[in-house]
Amino acid sequence: MYLTVEKKQEMFTQYGNDVKNTGCAESQIALFTFRINHLTNHLRSNRKDFGTQNALLKLVGKRRRLLDYLKDREINRYREIIKKLNIRK
Question: pLDDT for 2-53, tens place per residue?
Fold first, then answer.
């Protein structure tokens, strides 16, 4: 499996400041970004996998909504997470 429990805990500690802080916007955005990158790499080699393509589009939408929420609430946290994850090119 590409996403182990240890990897999730590491992401939650790094972006959510605690292992148990799994619901904060930053940790969710980091988790979605990791999954999006994994699915993008999968689709580069499997172009006709439309189920994965649909899942990828749903994840991108979820991440977009969380980023919009964070941008409306606290712009500094939004800018920080964008810089950490290098989302904007």
Answer: 889 999 888 888 888 888 878 889 999 999 999 999 999 999 999 999 999 9
* CB contact burial 39-52 (16+ within 10 A = b; e otherwise): beeebeeeeeeeee
- In CATH, the number for domain 23-85 is 1.10.287.10
pTM: 0.90
Of 57, 51, 59, nearest to 29 by C-alpha is 59
Tokens of 31: 């988790």
Report domain extents, the chain. Answer: 23-85
